[in-house]
Design brief:
The protein is α+β, with helices and mostly antiparallel strands and about 60 residues long. The protein is about 50% helix and about 15% strand. Helix 1 packs across helix 2.
């Protein structure tokens, strides 16, 4: 499965967590895993949205 590119501007972890609909702790986990990547304040969140969708479907973060 290929991941999609979806870019947003987020200046803080809180902005990014609000855009993704998850906690800042989850955002940090996604950063550590390399799932969400930035170029300054521009973030490619497509892969993170796919990951979070799949995790929610599987119950990964919300068990």
């Amino acid at each position: 499965m290929t991941s999609r590119n979806e870019f947003i501007v987020a200046s803080t972890s809180q902005d990014l967590s609000e855009a993704l609909g998850c906690s800042e702790d989850v955002v940090e986990d996604l950063r550590d895993k390399g799932i969400v990547a930035s170029s300054g304040e521009l973030w490619d969140v497509g892969p993170a949205r796919d990951y979070l969708r799949d995790a929610a479907w599987a119950g990964g973060f919300w068990d």
